[in-house]
Amino acid sequence: MPELWIPGAAEPSLDDFVTRVHKQIEQYTASHSAQQTEVQVELADGGRLAVQSLSAEPGYGFVTIAVHSDDERDPQQVIVPVNAIRRIDLGPAEADRARFGFALPEKESKDKNGTEPAA
Description:
Elements: H1 14-31, E1 37-43, E2 48-59, E3 62-67, E4 76-81, E5 85-92
């Protein structure tokens, strides 16, 4: 299916996409009783991934998904075309599945000069 082009619309930004997904996860987590949110991504091939984090790198239409492993090993990373993502499911990470929670990026509290903002 060809991409939809809207005249006058800016080129889509992967950074903006990832920022908006992070914002949605943060809002979901704040509005539910669970301390963490479990994030699952469904890909075009039907595969489902338990997501630990999402990055706009390497760019050029691709994103990096850090995937929770079934054991206690470090998460694996999968680089996929963003248009291969068919669905993103958010749900509370129950106590027995808390290790599957999503890790939001740290918020930057310093300006470009490395100083704290004035209160």
